[in-house]
Amino acid sequence: MKDFSGKLAVITGGGMGMGRELTRQLAAEGCSVAICDLSRDAMAETHALALEGAAANVKITTHEANVSVEEQLMSFAREVGEQHGTDAINLLFNNAGIAGGGSFVAGSRDEWERTFGACWFGVYYGCRAFMPMLLNSTEGHIINTSSINGFWASMGPGVPHTAYCAAKFAVKGFSEALIEDLRVNAPHVGISVVMPGHIGTEIVANTIANQSPDTLPGLIENQGGVLAAGAADAGADEVAEMIEAFATHFRESAPTSAAEAAKIMLEGVREGRWRILVGEDADILDREVRSRPEDAYDGSMVQHVASLLGPGGPE
Length: 315
Known about the structure:
The chain is an alpha/beta fold. It has helices at 17-28, 40-52, 70-84, 109-135, 162-185, 203-209, 216-223, 225-230, 236-252, 258-270, 280-291, 300-309, and strands spanning 8-12, 32-37, 60-64, 91-94, 140-145, 189-196, 199-200, 256-257, 275-278.
């Protein structure tokens, strides 16, 4: 798909981060967009920003939906058809995701399944809900967001990260399996799996916003190290402040911005690549894990990758 002008894109998690930037960049190229998110306020901001730079005749619609609930994504699909007056879409970005659910052994089952549900079932349900509209198009493409944690199930020593990693491995495997399925049964529909490294998004902040207060200790545990130690004797308000500070640091210290990530994703779609790595850290980690698979979960891997990235790389 070399040209996005005149096309219709669907983006989950369009309220902030990469979803917002994808909306802005596609609208600027003449592509109409339908986004969903849990936050009406965030979507309203995305809508306003995208319209500022939109090409003529672009329509942008917003839809409230929880991607881990299939019925809500089916309703989203029906609304897209009604509000855009069509039975077909061209681009499906299954982009929404949250963090959390670090430990399978010691963590909360509810938190684990909340994270897995958003990050895996959000992709699966998205493909189910919009496959008929992709099949009705003359040209379509699915873009599923996995992660570097879709090929490296770790955040480093001492930091359990099971729900997110398991979900992102599932997204990668599902997307790769769809390559041949689509060739056989829907050759006009392509697919890409995106594996970002550390991107400057609001994923940590959004995770906090959608957690109940009693799950915050689980998020602390998921980060491990200094954050967990500092929270040991802290009150609820102090814990929340610490996590919010971490969320800000996560966004501002990222080597790749959300806008840069969106640009790389769209370039990958234009080039017809099924595998899109985003960020130098993703490129390096991918190479190292492939070349040293038996060492992937050795404590030295993080330090080795950090040394290759040099000053200014991810911590």
